[in-house]
Amino acid sequence: MPEHVLAVNGSPRADKGIVDLVLQRFLAGCRNAGATTETLYLSKLNIEACKGELGCFFTQRKTCEVFPNDDGNAAVAAFAAADRVVLASPLHVYGISSHLVRFAERLISLGAPELAVNDGVWTHPGSTKPHRPCAVVGVCAFPGAHNFVLFREIMTTLQKVFWLAPSGSVLVPMSRDLSFLDPRHPRHAEHVRILSASERAGEEFMRDGAIAPETEREISRPTAAMETLIEAFEGYFSALRTRA
Ligand SMILES: Cc1cc2nc3c(=O)[nH]c(=O)nc-3n(C[C@H](O)[C@H](O)[C@H](O)COP(=O)(O)O)c2cc1C
Question: How far is the CA of 8 from the centre of ligand 1 (A)?
Answer without folding.
Answer: 17
